[in-house]
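Colleagues,

Please find the record for the two-part complex below.
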Amino acid sequence: MAAPAKPAEPELRRSVTPWGSFAWGYSDVGADIFVGLGLVLAVAAGASNVAFLFAGVVYVCIGLAYTELAATYPVAGGGQYFVMRGIGDIFGFIAGWAVLLDFTIDVTLFAWSSVDYTSQLIPALVNSVHPWLHFIVVLGLVLGLCLLNVIGVRESTAFNGFVSALDVMSETAILCLGFLFAFRPQLLIHAMQFDWPSPYQLMLGTSLAIVSFVGLESISQAAQETQRPASVIPRTSVALILTILIFALAYSNLALGLHPWHPIVGPHGHPMQFWQIFPNNADNQGKAVALLAAQVPYYGAFAALYVPVLGAVLLLISSNSGVFGSSRIAYAMSTSKLLPSIFQRVHATFRTPVISIVFFSTIALVELIFAAAPSLFPAADALYARFFRGESGLDFLADLYAFGAATSYSFVFLGLIGLRLSDPLSPRKFKIPLNLPVMWRGERAEFPIVAVIGFIGIFSILLFTLRTHPLGRIFGPSWLLVGIVLYLIYRRHRGLPLFRSQPRNWKKEQIDILRRSGELELMDEYVANLKASEARRNASAAPP
Amino acid sequence: MMILRGALAAAMVLCGIVILARMLEAIRAGAAILPGIVLGAALIALGAHRLSLIWRVRRTS
């Protein structure tokens, strides 16, 4: 009697449309500017736009790398999968572990900032006035999101799309009307000439500016659920990358050259430029876009009412993506035997990865306590002031966020270079421009020059982060170190290679990935490439 | 809808050109105009990207 057929493993349904794919990425990356703008203006002052420009150029390189990788390998694992496949298991683990740090920070940072935006309408939530209330509300949001994810309630793609569309329209209106009615180029030039920061402050600002561009993992997560990802992902990603870049550059230029609708006066009655309300004012830093929108002539009266709400909702969606994304990445890492199988366990009733969700939400809560401690306890405030240059709250979270992002993105560039050389036969419907033809192990490959430029850029941001963030340089590497130790213990326990990769049949897996994603033409092309390569090898091995 | 999207994309290109032109007027400010130049170029690129997508859809339908 024949053995019963093995039931097929459940797969994610491919139901995300091109707009859905854009909205998925936008709700994740688009929210970042709501947090990043105030932080960068506070430290980089007259060079804020330059800080955003540098981080933006690096971000474009990262975005292009993710686009190529997600279109070629449409799987949900994201950065850790590309790195693991390109340069090996342990590096894949480090990249994935850094992404997990980012996702846990994402939960706390965006929940915190969501409350900051709400405080624009409900002054009782201002952190410096009622720190305990602020803390309790953020805590409630994180616990609520954790619970919603455990019972499996997610915001719908339609809701994501609606909020994203509303936000794109709102930000476009703010920027257009702002440039039209309130922008004075002389103010911009003046700020850049007379308020240029020190090199240290510029490094700090640049490392914080990368915060505005984090979340590109969503491109690869969307790829797993998008119809015909190889065709759709490049189209939506390029639009997403350019939209985010334009918003970041436009906001920073507008903020520096903004002539406020209502005059802003300093403590001694002197008139101030708009951007000058951010240094040494954490409350303002947390809601920069709402403050800027309110200063746009005429439209500001209306924008002051809805921008805080829109910002709070978008930030909450982004915070939720942290809870959801961390559990999904942990699941993917566990499937690849980079993390213990406990992270694959799903709840019997709700069918959600409950252990992953609770574990990473708990880490997010610990980060929240570290961030909020100085505002809650005077003793902690003195301690932070002495050892960490007084960094706390948003600064603390942004430190770690920048560290995690810079680390994982550095490895993604290396993964891209590795995959270009080790897997030249996979059809790439989208390829980063500027490539150098090389011969590698008997195959013709293309070496991506942009990946090298991007790596240098993101690695320098990582160095800026380590140099300028007293908390980031302690907690970030500690997170990685703890992760590597746990990884080695786990691999040893399972009898898997510690520093080398376990053998895998990537060719078979690639055919399977392309078949499952519905890219049958690409699958045929890949099979034909494999056959042609084998024929070439046989011909060269045969005696003359 | 397609016409509206096309008009928006064309407006983006136009905005980009205006920003580039205004930045080039202030070229004496040196490196200070660089972020504005990139902003203008990105707007033109996004508008052109959207126009090319619309053109492709119209050609295939």
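The radius of gyration of chain B is 14 Å.

Comments are welcome before we finalize the supplementary table.
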